[in-house]
């Protein structure tokens, strides 16, 4: 039987898009309180899309994607609840665990990713990683090693995401852009992008949304694949008594 996305998932998808719109408008309008509160709602709404669009047992990819969205939510929420001195480290820590969860989720698809299928495409990811670390190194100082580790995990997520198809590949790349913008603002003194917060959150929500959509699509495809039925021709032949006797 053909299965499609549930009504609940469609409703939550509309809610997610609406919340993203509210958040981005709040950023552009300088409504800081609304921007902060609306940011807290984004990942729960996206997680609700994934949860209602999939069914139990959800499997490794969906489960770890939900874990990643959970850590992403903590990365959005906790920095607002701690002091300014530790908010950045708390955010990076939460998103590091989010990226690790995505790596675990996407690892089974590694053989379908560019890591095995088109290794030449690893070059742009490597260039981005090396270039980002090189730009951030002077300003990162004692945080250089954590920055390099986070960058490596982030790029690994983006590379492995290509194993889930084009939608996930774009989502991983856009997510990579989002976190790169944060790193550049934090560690590169001359970096001054107009509307920095807007572009960070736009790429963040688009990247996460595409990754979630790819995971849901993959889950739906698996559910639509009929389970092989064992037929008589697949059973081991039963020896004829006469032949066996002879």
TrEMBL record:
Pfam families with a match to the protein in the record: YhhN
Subcellular compartments: Membrane
Alphabetical UniProt keywords: Membrane, Transmembrane, Transmembrane helix
Record flagged with keyword Isomerase: no
Membrane topology designation: Multi-pass membrane protein
InterPro entries: TMEM86B-like
Main location: membrane
Transmembrane segments: 7-31, 37-54, 61-82, 88-108, 120-137, 143-161, 168-191, 197-216
Family note: Belongs to the TMEM86 family.
Protein name: Lysoplasmalogenase
Classification lineage: Bacteria, Bacillati, Actinomycetota, Actinomycetes, Micrococcales
């Amino acid at each position: 039987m053909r299965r499609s996305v549930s009504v609940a998932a469609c409703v939550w998808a509309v809610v997610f898009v609406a919340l993203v719109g509210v958040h981005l408008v709040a950023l552009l309008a300088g409504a800081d309180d609304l921007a902060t509160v609306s940011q807290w709602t984004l990942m729960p709404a996206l997680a609700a899309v994934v949860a209602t669009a999939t069914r139990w047992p959800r499997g490794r990819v969906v489960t770890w994607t939900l874990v990643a969205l959970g850590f992403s939510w903590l990365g959005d929420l906790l920095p607002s609840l701690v002091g300014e001195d530790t908010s950045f480290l708390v955010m990076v820590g939460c998103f590091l665990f989010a990226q690790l969860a995505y790596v675990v989720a996407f690892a089974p698809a590694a053989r379908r990713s560019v890591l095995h299928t088109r290794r030449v495409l690893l070059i742009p990811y490597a260039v981005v990683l090396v270039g980002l670390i090189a730009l951030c190194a002077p300003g990162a100082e004692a945080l250089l090693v954590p920055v390099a580790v986070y960058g490596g995990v982030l790029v690994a997520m983006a590379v492995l995401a290509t194993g889930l198809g084009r939608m996930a590949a774009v989502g991983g790349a856009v997510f990579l852009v989002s976190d790169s913008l944060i790193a550049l603002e934090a560690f590169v003194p001359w970096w001054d992008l107009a509307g920095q917060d807007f572009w960070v959150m736009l790429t963040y929500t688009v990247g996460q949304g595409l990754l979630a959509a790819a995971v849901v699509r993959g889950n739906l495809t698996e559910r639509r694949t009929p389970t092989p039925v064992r037929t008589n021709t697949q059973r081991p032949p039963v020896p004829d008594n006469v032949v066996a006797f002879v």
